[in-house]
Amino acid sequence: MLFHFALQSVRSRPRSWLVGLLAASMAALLTLGLSLVGSIYDGTRLSMIESGAGHLQVYNANSAEGPQMSLGPGGAPEMVPLPDYARTRELLLGVDGVRDVVPLEVGTGRVFRGNYLDEKLAAVRDVARAPASAEKDARLGRMADDLRRALERVARDSRRRDEAFSQSAGSAEDARALEQALAPSFWARFVAEPLPVLEFLENRVAKQVGEGESMYLDYVGTDLGGFAKAFGRFELVSGELPPRGTRGLLLGQAVYERSFKLPMAVRLDELKRERERGATFAGDERLGTQVERSLAEIPDLLSRLDVERATALRAALEAVLGQPGELEPLLEKFWVLDDGNFDARFQAFYGTLAPHLPLYRVRPGDTLVLKGTLDNDPGVAVKVWGTYRFRGLGGDGSQANGASLLDLATVRHLSGRMTREQMEEAKQLLAAVGMDSKEEAPSFDTFSPPRMLDVEPAAPTEDAPAPTFARASLPPTFDAADLEDGIFHAALVLTPDADSDAVAERIQQLAQSKGVPLATADWREVGGFVTGMVGMTQVLLVALGGMMGLFVLGVSAGTLLLLARERVGEVGTLRAVGMQRRDVFFGLMLEGLVLGAVGSLLGHGLGAALLWGLGADGIAVRDEALQFFLGGAVLRPELAAWHAAVVGVGVTLVVLVATWIPAWRGSAVTPAVAMRLREMDG
Question: Domain 52-104+481-521 adopts which CATH fold?
Answer without folding.
Answer: Alpha-Beta Plaits (3.30.70)
